[in-house]
């Protein structure tokens, strides 16, 4: 059913969304005009029908005339209603398309924003809110498009008809409609205030809901569920009050405007009757009288709805102004970069200093890792192991020179960095998709192979599940260790030249760790691998060890490190002793 | 239809609480229906005067307006009271949902996404509001309107009355067909919307991975796929929506046409249709009026239909089996003990198999074993979140499930794997809103956790509003420790507390744990902690969930 929607030229201009949807809007315009002008047909024919009946009673017309008139009436109404269906469907299609391109545009910004922009500068929250705003913005645009025809066009048509029948009476009767607008305007402030209070209460309730459910087990373990339920009840009571007030203002206004505008009906009946009896401004028959009255009634109703149009547009513009600054031209990906063949690249640090805030946590690091080598990085707690990884994904500043494949890291583009370096952090960052999809991320990789590499195949079999089973939200359908290994499988499946694994075996037992390391060696024989870990069992097998201590690092083979660095020796000995129990399993 | 007994129960509660409102609502609806019937009758009189070549007086014209105003005001009041009623019902249901949360087994939270549960509270709750305000109650009002108009039509024009009565069932048949299709599309849409909404927070959570592994395009495509799914469903229901009203209005035109033609056929027919010209005008007004509420009823039924999914979700949620643990178990001397405990999240796949061990007061014990051997499960049993399938679990001489909520924190303190921030101030993080905890106790916990400097550094100390972004992971873990020890529990349960710590505070976390462990029985499942905390006994959990207890 969908053709690919055209993207707007300028995502930050509301007009370009209308422009991108021109074909749909043409359909809406044509059908909307026919429908709304055709709306006159109802009152017109109803007047004629009454007149015809009057004529028949007086012997001035025959049954045939009535038959023709009635048939024409039904035929015209059919056409008008058909146009209405086309228009309604068209407007909704338009709204869906706009909503989709807005969401896509915002999501594109979100997914391409850096971690820093998202977390520190609050862009993540802003974008999340903006995406929620899309709905109300598009709803406003939809109402606006609908009402332009259903209120704007139709009102002009009705007024034209009234003027045609008797312009003096038209003016006299319509004088009261502006009064309805005036009343609407006066009440708008109240409506806005009540709405603001309602929104605030709704936000607070939704926050409470999220907390009550998200932390349900924490509250249970600490025995605080009842207390939370009471708080929730308070939020509910407040929400009920505020939402009733907001709805009251908004919903009850229409009938009241309607009443004000309908005062004109008194004029229509009194002066219209004089017209029919020949004592008024224009000579009328019964048809003219009923048509005029019916037209006027419909106009009055429309006039009261017009206030709704302004409300919708106002609401939409508030949402749009929140969204607009975030609308940027979409970043286009070059998907091939990820699939380009992996080239061998070494990693070298030359007098590198780095840190979280300034580049001063670790100083003067010097080491080189060549393709095919594995280097283990360790150190006391808080010695800065993870920092190395953060530097290489651009989240921590550094001084000195880092060379990747002989090129200065600083001069590499984001794209080049990513095609050279693959990093895996503590957090498994699994998606709510199947296990296989988590590993492949849409690329044609042999997911089974990589899951086997990380010993997940045995787990799946034990759980009687397949790789096509769901991982659950944030991987909750898997245990912590399993999540870690699925994440590792995913990383290996997309591994580039340099592989930095930050604590990849934190929740994995020793036997599994050995198995996984072995397959990494086999499969990633030509990669440059850095393993940041506090578990040293396998460090003797690594080509080199980088031992971080006292704000700097020593780079030596394991045996030499044992000799030279007493700190490393202690760490290693303690682990070998403490690790005994794990050997048994 | 499914049995919606539980939902009905909460509804009855709301009704019995708001009898006054409901009486008022009924009265207003009746008055509103009655007053809306009058203006066409005034019009009839005016037109009949005209056909007799007589003038219409100001009085009659004003009367017409007056009745319109009265009808409008009453309609206004009707809308308002229906809104209030809808809100009351929703409130009642949300309260029931919230209470239910406390009675659900822990397993429910482990096996259901929190986003999905939230959507029962928010989206489905809102659907219930619509169900009552724009569904059931306004449908009753509209039904009364239809009946009232029909009654008037019958007194004036039996022929038209019969005509309308004949058409109505056909229209309802048509309505049913439309609704069934719309409902199906609505359901599909709801599912898709949930996925669309869940995708954004998920992206934020996984943003590093997405960047590093170049998955931006994949994530965008996945998002677009969800949106498309939703729109395909929406378009289906839009199509029905666009067809429904035109069909009704066309029918209205047909009825008017047939009435006029038959009335024109001759005197006999005319008297059957009871038509003078004035009556014809009034009848056309009534036909216009009767189809409006009929159309509304159609829409209201659709609203009710689309709420059916929501009712289903809510009812399903309310009828989830509740957590009814046995509240007694054999007396034990040991501080903590497992006696032949077998447990599995699914009965067929036990995680723990005939596990027995006991821990004496003041002991420090580490559970070790392969990942997935069930170490976390032991803690879940000890905190009373789950009940063993067989055997017994004992904590301080009590069955953990039988601990009353207010006793829990006195018996054990639980340091979770990752800190769960709660809304409120930093103090609230520690007390979890327990006002019974004294300032002295809080200060002591802060000291034990080594948080004094951090808290002193905050703009308003303990009363600073909590912002997890301002704390490092390690500092959050320290808060978690303060939270666990603030009630001075005899037993301390430590999950993989330091598993995901990489920052400078890890050492401080361990120091804090050492301080906090003094004089308590400590159980941990962290490999690293066991070494750091000093001499501990190790209980090995083998692959089959049995223990091969050993001491180091």
UniProtKB/TrEMBL annotation, chain A:
Any one Gene Ontology cellular component term annotated for this protein: plasma membrane
Cited InterPro entries: AAA+_ATPase, ABC1_TM_dom, ABC1_TM_sf, ABC_transporter-like_ATP-bd, P-loop_NTPase, Type_1_exporter
Boundaries of every ABC transmembrane type-1 domain copy: 26-315
Keywords carried by this UniProt record: ATP-binding, Membrane, Nucleotide-binding, Transmembrane, Transmembrane helix
Topological type in the membrane: Multi-pass membrane protein
Primary location recorded for the protein, binned into one broad class: membrane
Keyword Cell inner membrane part of the UniProt annotation: no
SUPFAM superfamilies membership: ABC transporter transmembrane region (SSF90123), P-loop containing nucleoside triphosphate hydrolases (SSF52540)
UniProt keyword Cytoplasm, yes or no: no
Transmembrane spans: 20-41, 61-83, 144-161
Pfam families: ABC_membrane, ABC_tran
Occurrences of domain ABC transporter (ranges): 342-575
SMART domains to which the protein is assigned, alphabetical: AAA
Compartment annotation: Cell membrane
Alphabetized GO MF terms: ABC-type oligopeptide transporter activity; ATP binding; ATP hydrolysis activity
Protein name as annotated: ABC transporter ATP-binding protein
The organism of origin for this protein: Bilifractor porci
Automatic annotation (TrEMBL), chain B:
Protein name: ABC transporter ATP-binding protein
Pfam families: ABC_membrane, ABC_tran
PROSITE patterns in the record: ABC_TM1F (PS50929), ABC_TRANSPORTER_2 (PS50893)
All residue ranges annotated as the ABC transmembrane type-1 domain in the record: 23-306
Compartments (UniProt record): Cell membrane
CDD domains per record: ABC_6TM_TmrA_like
PANTHER family recorded: ATP-BINDING CASSETTE SUB-FAMILY B, ATP-BINDING CASSETTE SUB-FAMILY B MEMBER 6
Chain ranges passing through the membrane: 21-43, 55-74, 243-262, 268-287
ABC transporter domain: residues covered: 336-552
GO molecular function terms listed in the Swiss-Prot or TrEMBL record: ABC-type transporter activity; ATP binding; ATP hydrolysis activity; ATPase-coupled lipid transmembrane transporter activity
GO CC annotation: plasma membrane
Membrane topology: Multi-pass membrane protein
């Amino acid at each position: 059913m969908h053709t690919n929607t055209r993207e707007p030229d300028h995502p930050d201009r509301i007009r370009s969304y209308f422009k991108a949807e021109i074909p749909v809007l043409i359909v809406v315009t044509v059908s909307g005009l026919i429908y709304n002008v055709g709306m006159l047909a109802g009152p017109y024919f109803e007047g004629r029908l009454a007149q015809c009946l009057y004529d028949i009673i007086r012997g001035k017309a025959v049954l045939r005339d009535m038959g023709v008139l009635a048939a024409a009436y039904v035929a015209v109404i059919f056409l008008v209603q058909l146009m209405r269906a086309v228009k309604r469907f068209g407007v909704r299609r338009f709204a869906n398309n706009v909503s989709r391109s807005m969401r896509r545009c915002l999501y594109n910004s979100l997914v391409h924003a850096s971690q820093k922009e998202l977390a520190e500068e609050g862009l993540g929250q802003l974008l999340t809110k903006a995406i929620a705003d899309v709905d109300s913005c598009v709803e406003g645009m939809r109402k606006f498009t609908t009402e332009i025809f259903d209120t704007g066009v139709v009102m002009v048509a009705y007024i034209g008809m009234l003027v045609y029948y008797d312009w003096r009476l038209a003016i006299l009767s319509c004088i009261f409609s502006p009064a309805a607008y005036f009343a609407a305007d006066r009440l708008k402030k109240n409506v806005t205030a009540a709405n603001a209070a309602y929104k605030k209460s709704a936000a607070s309730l939704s926050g409470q809901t999220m907390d009550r459910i998200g932390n349900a087990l924490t509250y249970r373990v600490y025995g605080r569920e009842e207390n939370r339920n009471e708080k929730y009840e308070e939020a509910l009571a407040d929400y009920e009050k505020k939402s009733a007030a907001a709805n009251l203002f908004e919903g009850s206004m229409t009938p009241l405007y309607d009443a004000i505008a309908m005062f004109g009906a008194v004029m229509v009946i009194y002066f219209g009757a004089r017209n029919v009896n020949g004592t008024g401004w224009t000579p009328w028959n019964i048809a003219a009288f009923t048509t005029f009255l019916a037209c006027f009634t419909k106009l009055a109703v429309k006039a009261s709805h017009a206030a709704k149009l302004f409300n919708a547009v106002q609401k939409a513009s508030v949402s749009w102004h929140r969204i607009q600054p975030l609308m940027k031209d979409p970043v286009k990906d070059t998907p091939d970069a990820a699939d380009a063949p992996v080239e061998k690249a070494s990693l070298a640090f030359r007098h590198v200093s780095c840190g979280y805030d300034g580049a001063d946590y670790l100083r003067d690091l010097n080491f080189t890792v060549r393709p095919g080598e594995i280097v283990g990085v360790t150190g006391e707690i808080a010695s800065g192991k993870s920092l190395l990884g953060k530097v290489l994904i651009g989240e921590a500043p550094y001084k000195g020179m880092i060379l990747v494949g002989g090129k200065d890291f600083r001069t590499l583009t984001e794209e080049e960095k990513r095609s050279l370096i693959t990093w895996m952090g503590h957090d498994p960052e699994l998606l709510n998709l199947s296990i296989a999809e988590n590993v492949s991320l849409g690329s044609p990789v042999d997911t089974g192979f990589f899951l086997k590499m990380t010993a997940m195949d045995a787990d799946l079999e034990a759980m009687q599940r397949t790789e096509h089973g769901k991982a659950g939200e944030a991987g909750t359908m898997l245990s912590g260790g399993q999540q870690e290994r699925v994440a590792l499988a995913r990383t290996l499946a997309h591994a580039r030249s340099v592989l930095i694994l930050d604590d990849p075996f934190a929740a994995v037992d020793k036997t599994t760790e050995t198995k996984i390391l072995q397959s990494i060696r086999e499969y990633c024989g030509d990669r440059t691998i850095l393993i940041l870990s506090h578990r040293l069992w396998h460090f003797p097998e690594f080509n080199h060890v980088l031992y971080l201590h006292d704000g700097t690092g020593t780079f030596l083979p394991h045996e030499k490190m044992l000799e030279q660095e007493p700190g490393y020796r202690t760490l290693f000995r303690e682990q070998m002793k403490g690790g005994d129990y794990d050997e048994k399993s | 239809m499914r049995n919606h007994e539980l939902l009905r129960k909460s509804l009855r509660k709301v009704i019995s609480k708001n009898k006054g409102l409901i009486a008022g609502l009924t009265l207003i609806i009746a008055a509103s229906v009655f007053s809306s019937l009058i203006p066409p009758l005034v019009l009839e009189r005016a037109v009949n005067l005209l056909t007799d070549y007589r003038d219409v007086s100001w009085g009659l014209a004003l009367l017409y307006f007056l009745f319109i105003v009265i009808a409008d005001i009453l309609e206004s009041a009707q809308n308002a009271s229906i809104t209030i009623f809808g809100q009351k019902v929703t409130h009642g249901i949300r309260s029931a949902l919230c209470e239910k949360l406390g009675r659900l087994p822990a397993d429910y939270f482990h096996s259901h996404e929190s986003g999905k549960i939230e959507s029962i509270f928010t989206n489905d709750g809102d659907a219930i509001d619509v169900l009552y305000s724009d569904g059931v109650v306004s449908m009753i009002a509209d039904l009364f309107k239809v009946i009232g108009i029909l009654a008037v039509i019958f007194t004036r024009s039996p022929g038209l009355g019969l005509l309308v009565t004949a058409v109505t069932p056909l229209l309802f048949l048509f309505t049913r067909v439309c609704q069934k299709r719309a409902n199906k599309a609505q359901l599909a849409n709801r599912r898709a919307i949930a996925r669309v909404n869940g995708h954004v927070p998920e992206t934020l959570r996984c943003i590093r991975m997405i960047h590093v592994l170049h998955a931006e395009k994949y994530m965008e495509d996945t998002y677009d796929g969800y949106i498309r799914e939703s729109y395909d469903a929406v378009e289906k229901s839009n199509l029905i929506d666009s067809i429904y009203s035109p069909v009704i209005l066309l029918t209205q035109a047909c009825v008017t046409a047939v009435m006029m033609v038959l009335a024109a056929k001759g005197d006999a027919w005319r008297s059957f249709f009871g038509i003078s010209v004035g009556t014809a005008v009034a009848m056309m007004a009534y036909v216009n009026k009767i189809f409006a509420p009929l159309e509304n009823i159609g829409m209201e039924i659709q609203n009710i239909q689309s709420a059916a999914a929501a009712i289903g979700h809510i009812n399903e949620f309310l009828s989830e089996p509740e957590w009814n643990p046995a509240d007694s178990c054999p007396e034990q001397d040991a501080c903590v003990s497992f006696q032949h405990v077998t447990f599995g999240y699914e009965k067929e796949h036990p995680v723990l198999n005939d596990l027995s061990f006991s821990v004496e007061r003041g002991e420090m014990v580490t559970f070790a074993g392969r990942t997935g051997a069930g170490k976390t499960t032991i803690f879940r049993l000890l905190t009373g979140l789950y009940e063993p399938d067989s055997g017994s679990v004992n904590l301080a001489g009590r069955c953990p499930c039988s601990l009353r909520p207010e006793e829990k924190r006195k018996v054990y303190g639980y340091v979770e794997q990752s800190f769960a921030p709660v809304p409120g101030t930093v103090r609230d993080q520690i007390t979890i809103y327990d006002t019974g905890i004294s300032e002295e106790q809080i200060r002591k916990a802060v000291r034990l956790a080594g948080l004094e400097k951090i808290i002193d550094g905050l703009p308003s100390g303990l009363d600073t509003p909590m912002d997890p972004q301002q704390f490092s992971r390690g500092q959050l873990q320290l808060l978690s420790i303060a939270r666990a020890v603030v009630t001075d529990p005899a037993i301390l349960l430590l999950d993989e507390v330091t598993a995901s710590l990489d920052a400078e505070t890890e050492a401080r976390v361990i120091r804090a744990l050492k301080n906090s462990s003094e004089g308590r029985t400590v159980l941990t499942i962290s490999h690293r902690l066991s070494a750091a905390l000093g001499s501990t006994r190790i209980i090995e959990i083998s692959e089959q969930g049995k223990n091969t207890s050993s001491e180091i």
